[in-house]
Amino acid sequence: MTNLKAKYQELIKDYMMKKYKYSSVMQVPKLEKIVINSGVGDATKDAKLVESAKNEIEAITGQKAIFTVSKKSIATFRLRENQNIGVKVTLRGERMWNFVEKLVNIALPRTKDFKGIPVNSFDGRGNYTLGIKEQIIFTEVEFDQVKKVRGFDVTFVTSVKNNEEAFDLLTAIKLPFQRKK
């Protein structure tokens, strides 16, 4: 069990129970999954870029990634139907907790001029999306092997239905949010 998962089980559940006065432990918000998505816009010109993005995401997450494909053809973008245009991974369980620890403790502090992650990226239903500008902030990505520096989205899917409780949960998990002014 990871340190963060143990901390959630021992401390965060109790904190959330008391703060929101839940009648059952099953009502306590939890982090259900993390979805990592990387769109590769240059895939129309070079199909190998999608493959390298897939390898990088797999190295970062430790889990097999799947390709996302285009739904329809768009001639002006030189895009064909069912063409690989991105990569995604869904993390649950132990791998999810390991990724959160790695993101908070190693990757985000390596970001240049890091002042915290934005507070306004909640979707209204308790999910939070964080944009990572460069995949090279993760130690698993070898800088010499990178064909192109690209970013990806990390979506934290929680079991709550409002932003306030999701913010409290993610803050308790120690996501480094920017200070409210």
Write the layout of secondary structure elements.
Blueprint: H1 3-20, E1 31-39, H2 48-61, E2 66-69, E3 84-91, H3 93-107, E4 128-132, E5 152-158, H4 163-172
Antiparallel strand pairs: 1-3, 1-5, 2-3, 4-5
Helix pairs in contact: 1-4
Describe the structure in your own words:
With 181 residues, the protein is of the alpha+beta class. The chain has 4 helices and 5 strands, in the order H-E-H-E-E-H-E-E-H. The model has no long low-confidence stretch (mean pLDDT 84).
Please describe the structure with a list of short key phrases separated by commas or semicolons:
5-stranded antiparallel sheet; 181 residues; globular; 18% strand; alpha+beta; 31% helix; 5 strands
Mean pLDDT: 84
The radius of gyration over CA amounts to 18 Å
Strands in their spatial order, largest beta sheet: 2-3-1-5-4
Query: What's the order of the H and E elements?
Result: HEHEEHEEH
Task: Tell me the overall shape.
Answer: globular
The largest sheet, given as strand count, sense and whether it forms a barrel, is: 5 strands, antiparallel
**Tally of extended strands?**
5
List low-confidence stretches. none
The secondary-structure class comes to alpha+beta
Determine the strand fraction and express it as a percent band.
Answer: 15-25%
State the share of residues found in helices, binned by percent: 25-40%
Distance between the termini: 36 Å
| Helix segment tally | 4
